[in-house]
Amino acid sequence: TVPFALASPSAGAVTRVSVESPLRAQEQEEQRREFEALWGGRDMATESGEDASEDTCIICLTQPRECVLLCCGHVCCCFGCYEALPSHTCPICRSPIDRVVPLYQA
């Protein structure tokens, strides 16, 4: 999106307008397709009918949270999203991730 301002000489008002760059839109569409290809449209279904938003990965929003990031201790993502992180920093607090421990919920 490329923001720019339009000025109306008669009214003296400035209107901000955003124009979607065709290149940027194409890049976003490619990223969306790549993401869907990776995850294959998997959805997390809750059998009990409870609101599972607390237990879903904060990155993909579909898979359950499956790992503990150490040293900060945040439980925030599934293992697939952890592996896809561009840098080994916690997505919540940005502290370095020393190791990852699987989370087993009963």
Automatic annotation (TrEMBL):
GO terms for MF: ubiquitin-protein transferase activity; zinc ion binding
GO annotation (BP), single: protein ubiquitination
InterPro entries: MDM2_MDM4_MUL1 (IPR051652), Znf_RING (IPR001841), Znf_RING/FYVE/PHD (IPR013083)
Residues of the RING-type domain: 57-94
Short name of any one Pfam family annotated for the protein: zf-C3HC4_3
Keywords: Metal-binding, Zinc, Zinc-finger
Name the UniProt record assigns to this protein: RING-type domain-containing protein
Source species of the chain: Chelydra serpentina (Snapping turtle)
